[in-house]
């Protein structure tokens, strides 16, 4: 605590002096006593203390009259300009009556601040070539205190190369210089770390420090150095380009550009060596850039220099010797001479295709060569007798273009070196086509079904052959091998497109007249000579339901109504009549069924749908009508079905009439010159005359027709077709056993049998007409027709 002192001699200003940094509550002075004021009077008067700062450092105690500190006073803050003296001015004001006392408080300094450097780290760059005695300025330290409390001196940490010198300016400020006392060597020590200390004169003594970093700058005083003076390296010839030979690593103790090294070949390195090897100037890598050939050079010698980039560059040198190791580095070579790239496929075995030569630059085992064909082919290599390094490539087997159109013959030549080297050469041989393949049909026999009533010109089938040859040797022409069936040429019935083999029908076929045809079709190529093959074609005419059934029994002499008499005493199950119909279509379409279309009494008669028999289902009664009418329809099995009808009128009589089943049918000879037969004879004579004229014209045309080169004899099928055609025109055969046998017997005698009942009271008769006259009778009903022809 520092007591405050009243400065004597000051009449209007009261002055005190205290030390800075006094504790809060510390009494500066008893202001009331010093100013002669009574404490009792102050308690009832207004007292104010004005301080001319932005802080309230002091206050007045009215009870004790003391002036005391309420906030620490910092002299360096209050007087930053560091004057020799520092005052705090304030007014003590008393109201009623107003009295003002001027007070000055002097603040004395204490050593409360240590010296400090504005930069606590100072970096200096000093060349290693600097001479002793050179000076380097250092920054000054500052101390806010004054007097003896400010900076007194500087100190430097121990150093073999540096010291300091202190100089004092005219204003008393001390300046420090760093002085070099010994030469520097960057390679020995590149950085010197020093500590500069500033010390004040206060009590206690305070100090501040700064780090001085001295970086020694390099000078180019060290040349590059190689690890060895001579490098010996072994390399195989044909080492790949880019292969590393050696990586040179010269070192330079300098730094910066003084240590940066550039590598280069010296003048002692030959141009040929520099063509084979390349040197990277920055990394010192030596790599292969050309071909190393033992046969050209056994070893290479290179002289290398390493130079730094200093202002005055220094350099180092070395020598590299590369010994080349011999290798099997030459590939065999194949030379093809006099090659035939195109040959016909029928070239003879033993024909020479090419002359092949082989060679190798190597010697010894590396120069011995074996040559062979890569894959098994119809070719072989024969060694030439006059030139041991030449071979003849010849055909060893017959060639076939249709199997292999071309050959890629790969020849491989391999030496006996280690490792063995090889070369290959491919010879392409194209085979020219020869017409050596006949056309071939996919099938040897074609069965073609044709629906009857076909349209003329309709396509029946496409018969296409294949020929594996090329060009004109595979261009095919199709034609029908000419033959005749029943004096009719196949070319009049069928036609084939000569280009694509489409087979067409030239006429409309009728199953009832012609049922099948058998002929041959030939396919011929356009080669020279042409080759051909043929195929058998079997045409089957498929039936259509185009013929309606024809009712042949019971016989209708006039119209479509048959009148019969039957006794009323007929028993149940008795045969009344039997309807027989014939259909000239095929078996399936000619299957006939019978049924009643109309019947007077459905309970009296039954009709068997398969054989056409009409029988009684019961006996006649007095209630039954005397006149009965039955309409029977005969329907075939075709699609759509065709039919024919017959009307049977029955008259029941009381007298006994011989049963239908017991009636005897006897032949009755008509008068050959009856009215009907007269008309028939005239008609048949006209038809026969026209037929005779037609036959004569046909014979004349046949005689004028040129003979064909090839005429196939009539086959069994053609005979069958002709026979079936004849039968189709013959008289229809009834299914009735009796009439069928009678029909056969009489026709053999040259007569035609007609079944007809005799008038009432007479027996049934049969008329026969000699062969050749013909008979055809057609009723007025369109649903029932009977045709009788000549066998």
Automatic annotation (TrEMBL):
InterPro entries: Cadherin-like_dom, Cadherin-like_sf, Cadherin_C, Cadherin_CS, Cadherin_N, Protocadherin/Cadherin-CA
Keyword Methyltransferase belongs to the record: no
Membrane-crossing segments per the record: 678-701
UniProt keyword Repeat, yes or no: yes
One biological process term in Gene Ontology: anatomical structure morphogenesis
Cell compartment(s), UniProt: Cell membrane
Topological relation to the membrane, as annotated: Single-pass type I membrane protein
Record Gene3D superfamilies: Cadherins
Cellular component, GO, one term: plasma membrane
Name of the molecule in the record: Protocadherin alpha-C2-like
Organism lineage string: Eukaryota, Metazoa, Chordata, Craniata, Vertebrata
């Amino acid at each position: 605590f520092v007591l405050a002192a009243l400065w004597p001699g000051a009449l209007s200003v009261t002055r005190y002096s205290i030390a800075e940094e006094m504790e809060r509550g510390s009494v500066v002075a008893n202001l009331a006593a010093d100013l002669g004021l009574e404490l009792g009077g102050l308690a009832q008067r207004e007292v104010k203390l004005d301080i001319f700062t932005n802080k309230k450092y002091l206050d007045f105690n009215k009870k004790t009259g003391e002036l005391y500190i309420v906030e620490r006073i910092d002299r360096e803050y209050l007087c930053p300009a560091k004057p020799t003296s520092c005052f705090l001015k304030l007014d003590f004001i008393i109201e009623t009556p107003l009295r003002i006392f001027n007070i000055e408080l002097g603040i004395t300094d204490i050593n409360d601040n240590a010296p400090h450097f504005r930069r606590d780290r100072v970096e200096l760059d000093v060349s290693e070539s600097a001479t002793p005695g050179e000076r380097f300025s250092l920054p000054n330290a500052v101390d806010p205190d004054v007097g003896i409390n400010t900076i007194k001196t500087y100190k430097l940490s121990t150093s073999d190369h540096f010291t300091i010198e202190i100089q004092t300016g005219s204003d008393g400020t001390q300046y420090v210089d760093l002085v070099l006392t010994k030469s520097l060597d960057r390679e020995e020590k590149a950085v010197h770390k020093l500590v500069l200390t500033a010390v004040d004169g206060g009590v206690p003594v305070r100090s501040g420090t700064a780090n001085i970093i001295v970086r020694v700058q390099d000078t180019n005083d060290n040349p590059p150095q190689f690890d060895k003076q001579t490098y010996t390296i072994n390399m195989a010839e044909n080492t790949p380009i880019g292969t590393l030979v050696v990586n040179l690593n010269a070192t330079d103790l300098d730094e910066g550009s003084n240590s940066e090294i550039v590598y280069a070949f010296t003048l002692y390195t030959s141009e040929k060596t520099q063509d084979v090897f390349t040197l990277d100037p920055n990394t010192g890598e030596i790599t292969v850039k050309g071909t190393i050939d033992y046969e050209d050079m056994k070893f290479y010698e290179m002289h290398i220099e390493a130079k730094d980039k200093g202002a005055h560059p220094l350099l180092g040198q070395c020598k590299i010797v590369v010994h080349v190791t011999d290798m099997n580095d030459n590939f065999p070579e194949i030379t093809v001479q006099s090659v035939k790239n195109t040959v016909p496929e029928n070239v003879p075995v033993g024909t020479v295709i090419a002359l092949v030569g082989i060679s190798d630059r190597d010697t010894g085992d590396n120069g011995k060569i074996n040559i062979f064909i890569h894959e098994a082919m119809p070719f072989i290599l024969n060694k030439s007798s006059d030139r041991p390094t030449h071979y003849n490539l010849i055909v060893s087997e017959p060639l076939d273009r249709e199997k292999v159109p071309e050959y890629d013959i790969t020849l491989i030549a391999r030496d006996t070196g280690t490792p063995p080297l090889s070369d290959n050469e491919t010879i392409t041989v194209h085979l020219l086509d020869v017409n050596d393949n006949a056309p071939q049909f996919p099938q040897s026999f074609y069965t073609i079904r044709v629906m009857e009533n076909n349209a003329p010109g309709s396509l029946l089938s496409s018969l296409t052959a294949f020929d594996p040859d090329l060009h004109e040797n595979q261009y095919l022409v199709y034609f029908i091998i000419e033959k005749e069936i029943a004096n009719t040429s196949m070319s009049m019935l069928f036609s084939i497109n000569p280009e694509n083999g489409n087979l067409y029908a030239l006429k409309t076929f009728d199953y009832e007249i012609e049922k099948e045809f058998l002929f041959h079709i030939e396919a011929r190529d356009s080669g020279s000579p042409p080759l051909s093959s043929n195929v058998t074609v079997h045409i089957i005419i498929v039936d259509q339901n185009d013929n309606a059934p024809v009712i042949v029994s019971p016989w209708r002499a006039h119209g479509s109504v048959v009148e019969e008499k039957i006794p009323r005493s007929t028993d149940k199950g008795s045969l009344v009549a039997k309807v027989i119909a014939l259909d000239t279509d095929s078996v399936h379409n000619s299957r006939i069924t019978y049924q009643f279309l109309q019947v007077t009494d459905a309970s009296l008669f039954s009709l068997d749908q398969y054989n056409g028999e009409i029988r009684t289902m019961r006996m006649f009664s007095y209630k039954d009508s005397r006149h009965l009418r039955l309409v029977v329809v005969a329907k075939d099995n075709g699609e759509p079905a065709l039919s024919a009808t017959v009307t049977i009128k029955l008259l029941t009589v009381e007298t006994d009439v011989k049963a239908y089943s017991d009636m005897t049918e006897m032949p009755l000879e008509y008068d050959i010159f009856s009215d009907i037969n007269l008309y028939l004879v005239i008609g048949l004579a006209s038809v026969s005359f026209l037929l005779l004229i037609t036959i004569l014209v046909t014979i004349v045309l046949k005689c004028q027709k040129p003979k064909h080169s090839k005429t196939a004899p009539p086959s069994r099928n053609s005979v069958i077709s002709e026979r079936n055609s004849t039968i189709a025109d013959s008289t229809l055969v009834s299914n009735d056993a009796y009439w069928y046998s009678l029909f056969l017997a009489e026709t053999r005698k040259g007569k035609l049998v007609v079944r007809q009942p005799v008038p009432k009271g007479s027996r049934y008769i049969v008329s026969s007409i000699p062969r050749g006259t013909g008979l055809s009778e057609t009723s007025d009903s369109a649903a029932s027709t009977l045709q009788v022809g000549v066998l």
